[in-house]
Specification:
By secondary structure, the protein is mostly beta strands. The chain has one domain: Ferric Hydroxamate Uptake Protein, Chain A, domain 1 (Beta Complex), CATH 2.170.130. Helices cover about 5% and strands about 40% of the residues. It has a 5-stranded antiparallel sheet with strand order 2-1-5-6-7. It is globular, with a radius of gyration of 15 Å. About 20% of the residues are buried. This is Transcobalamin-like C-terminal domain-containing protein. It comes from Arion vulgaris.
Length: about 150
């Protein structure tokens, strides 16, 4: 049976040592990571502001990721989790749609409550209409991950 015919949910958790841990539900076996075709660019610095003013526990803090190759935002989140042991996140992988952040520091998105982690650029506050697997930050850019609701 082709691996493309099997529906699989991939839960990604980033461990303190920076390694990628995956839990797979289903019988899919892959030989490479879902984003293994990415080619890193020049080293850049990105500031991440993590903000939850929607539900307890409320928090806001900043993590700076420096001198990392320019590539998709998910890689900067991995680096931030490695750098700051107080920053933990998880993401689900949805095939061609990529990763979706499901939790940061234990605050989980919830479809019933219509809550999720939204990505904004700072200082404009404009919403970034790409996910963490597609959006490539610019050098010295500040990205806000804001826990919010839709509707």
């Amino acid at each position: 049976m082709s691996k493309f015919l099997v529906i699989c949910l991939v839960l990604v958790t980033f461990i303190a040592d920076g390694s990628l841990g995956c839990k797979r539900f289903g019988s899919v076996t892959t030989t490479s990571s879902p984003d293994s075709t990415d080619q890193p660019g020049q080293p850049i610095t990105v500031d991440l502001i993590i903000r939850n003013q929607f539900q307890k526990p409320y928090f806001e803090y900043q993590v700076t990721v420096s001198a990392k190759p320019q590539r998709e935002l998910i890689h900067f989140l991995e680096s931030a989790a490695t750098k700051d042991p107080n920053f933990k996140f998880s993401a689900d992988f949805y095939g061609s749609l990529g990763y979706m952040i499901t939790a940061i520091n234990g605050v989980r998105m919830n479809a019933t409550e219509k809550s999720y982690w939204k990505i904004h650029e700072n200082p404009s506050g404009n919403s970034i209409d790409l996910g963490v697997s597609s959006y490539v930050p610019l050098n010295t850019q500040t990205i806000i991950l804001n826990f919010t609701t839709w509707g």
